[in-house]
Amino acid sequence: MMTSLERRNALKGNELAWYERMLEIREFERRTNELFAAGLIRGTTHLCVGQEALDIGLATTLNPDDVLAATYRSHGVALAFGLSSHSVMAEIMGKATGCAGGVGGSMHMCDSTVGLLPTSAIIGGGMPIAVGAALAFQVQKKKNVGVALFGDAATNIGAFHESLNLAAIWKLPVIFVIDNNVYGEYTRIDLSTPIEDLHLRAASYAMPSIKVDGMDVYAVQASMQEAVDRARRGDGPTLVEAKTYRFSGHSRADQALYRPAGELEHWQKRDPILLTEQALIKKGILDQAKIEAMKTKIVNLVDSAITQAQADPEPSAKDMFSNVFKEMRK
User: Fold this and answer.
1) Pick the CATH number of 4-308 from 2.30.42.10, 3.40.630.10, 3.30.43.10, 3.40.50.970
2) Is 326's pLDDT higher than 90?
């Protein structure tokens, strides 16, 4: 079985692998939703269906020794960054073989070998952490970058403004990525925020900003590369706004009945998997036979991951106290 780092490196410069990993994320989320509905998973979950291009775009422009602080909608990010379907599914199922030992669950993915910091259930919780990581890189004179990925509604909280302000003053190598998927939980952006182009808020901190089509993996990569290059040069932070759309509701209990008629169908025409598929067919990299073969392969892969995770042991009660603190020797 490939390690997380090997799976991450397999994406490097391989457009066909990007498409395959996007298929894996989509199938993984579909099956996760089924398992929750069947009562086979405890707790809640937040699916990223429709946002696969953003996940892959981040994974293919950052290095494994950079760090990402993401949100609770993180299954796709984890898979894009190289975690296996088994590792992520086992964590969601609360099994000891999960990426956090089964004690974190759906909202807490992590793997230090690929730079994925523990994802946070706290709205905007990753922003100060990414800023702190960037400060550490700056002090240590490293060329690494910290990235915070967060939703549109998080731009209305104090941590957003404090993080951007500090990053701008100290010219930290950090990138703030807004996953603007139109809704903050169940509330449409126009009902909670006076502007819909959230990247404009960067001007308040004399910070460069980029607006990008988050449904287009190539556009995401280009924008992220620009921001990453700026950070590595020592030119400070960037605010990137990716215009995306989640095809599912906020969480497993949300049927998304608040959406205006036709809105979902409008965005589905720009399904990131469909756009990537069309681009690869045009380039002669992909054809219908390969598409069907890859889809079959992914269904089998996720099936196998689920079967394995269901048979895995659960953590013991004492495991909840593991990794709470670390004793430092002088």
Assistant:
1) 3.40.50.970
2) no
